[in-house]
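Ticket reopened. Same input as before:
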Amino acid sequence: MLTIPWKAGAGWGAPEIKPYGPFALDPSSTVLHYAQTIFEGMKAYKDANGDIRIFRPDMNMKRMNTSARRIALPTFDGEALLELIKDLVRLDQHWIPTETGHSLYIRPSLIGTQKAIGVGPPNEALLFVILSPVGPYYPNGFKPVALYGTTEYVRASPGGTGAYKLGVNYAPGILPQQHAAQLGYAQNLWLHGPEHYITEVGTMNMFVVFRTDDGGYELVTPPLDGMILPGVTRDSVLTLARDHLTQKTPVAGLPPKLTVSERPVTMQEVKAAAQAGKIVEMFGAGTAAVISPVDRIGYLGEDILIPTGEGGMGPIARAVWTELVGRQTGAIPHEWSVVV
Amino acid sequence: MLTIPWKAGAGWGAPEIKPYGPFALDPSSTVLHYAQTIFEGMKAYKDANGDIRIFRPDMNMKRMNTSARRIALPTFDGEALLELIKDLVRLDQHWIPTETGHSLYIRPSLIGTQKAIGVGPPNEALLFVILSPVGPYYPNGFKPVALYGTTEYVRASPGGTGAYKLGVNYAPGILPQQHAAQLGYAQNLWLHGPEHYITEVGTMNMFVVFRTDDGGYELVTPPLDGMILPGVTRDSVLTLARDHLTQKTPVAGLPPKLTVSERPVTMQEVKAAAQAGKIVEMFGAGTAAVISPVDRIGYLGEDILIPTGEGGMGPIARAVWTELVGRQTGAIPHEWSVVV
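Engineering reply: fixed in the latest deploy. New output:
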């Protein structure tokens, strides 16, 4: 693991790569009482040549600094941290699985370690990076997930912290997730306001594909309005689709008649479109599953059925997923994939 | 310090009282990534006879269990934990200051310690209690605080976690607090909705005293609507005032013409009442300061001035504070004060 201590006044201390093992944390440490913690998630892949690849790590470094500022933790040189992460991954490269769809998960975290019971900016912090091999989300073909359109709890609200990758956005979601599971759904689809705007799924951003009246498609995701995490996979899906439309980088399988929209979507719109047969598909986008098709949304006591296409995945999602995974694993050469 | 480990299946392990020292926490521990932490704050006093007293600890035990349930941490036997806390306080009683207004702060915490990068109910947790002597908030007489009516950030929202004493409610407030301090205010007064309803101050609940048209007083605090922490001091102020009105337990200095209201209050109401000379005083109520008078609220670019009475504290606050501190320290015998 990689550790870098920070102290007010002195700044960042010497980075150290050392064997994985427990931290000695004072019982009064800020993180243990006031939830002063942020994190990121990235994946390292081995490509066909045996090279190690990480996907758009600059985005994670940038977001982690944005998170740090929001929760009064120290910011850092993102490029320098990335070089250290590369060192760590190179050292531990025998842990990167070579099977298709497998990867090495990279978890950078930054915690407040001030030894004092007082709520304020900490005078000590610890940045650390740990690694873990992970298998594919769908080892046996895509399995669409059922989401629970949650009206009892909220994940985020205007003026809150939903747009930042802070620890505080996660533990409060466990109880709602248990409720959703009891009702037979895999995850919570977080809604906002009396209109029940779709926001995100906690571990994924959401995309809806509508069939348009002119026989084309509209690929919609809710806008970054302060309540939605700016996902790296979300941005990749949008950029990939837009670059396809401008012919900058055509994507195999994506239709030419495609509108890409960042706009609000209500549950009512999804429900009406589903009933009218105008929904092509819905999917989540995140680092863990990359693309995750949705086949059902529980909403106010009934199920809205969503088409999923052949093999559990619709046409847009499949084209996007194929292109994304190709770029991530190095099968499709692209600047997003950084060789370590 | 007191530590009690918990494991799924096995339940709570053996409590241990041992010297204060660091925890060995696995870098993947849930608390370090997903903010799975709750806490409480209590104070132990030495009375004139040398007896140790804790104030309404049953309320803290109950609230801590409510918090645990909300964030998928294990619940516990509150009475049993309280007995263990008493053992710890007895053992460390030489740390309880005897000077007026000083006390021993008691901090119980419960953290998720599962060793795995996955968001879910943890299979391991750790309950611990640490102690620290604390001085009075106002060693040299009351110093009223200026609050910043915050419209840029929110602390809580409907369906969120504001009514629970979770770590997640604290670290996100540090940045707003820094902004408030830059503008010359001591703390954020958290508002809700376009009406700017007064909620709380993060470390204190809020009370406003209005002068009524019949020459009496209305003591108002916002209702527990899911966005406000159910403070022990808040409940004590309300109960004490209500018991005074019914003559169950008259409180010296409180007027007979007093209405006690748990009702919504907007900033507009406070502003208009302040301008019309109808505000008697405002104060915060919490474990740390007990009662904290407010003399100024920054709101939408201007300052609303609040009267504070003689010696920095208004008439209702002073009577409430005198009675509360009397009961806490044992000077006024009352069942709320538990002898350890």
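Chain A has two domains: 2-134, 145-330. Residues 2-134 of chain A form a domain with the D-amino Acid Aminotransferase; Chain A, domain 1 fold (CATH 3.30.470.10). Please confirm and we'll close it.
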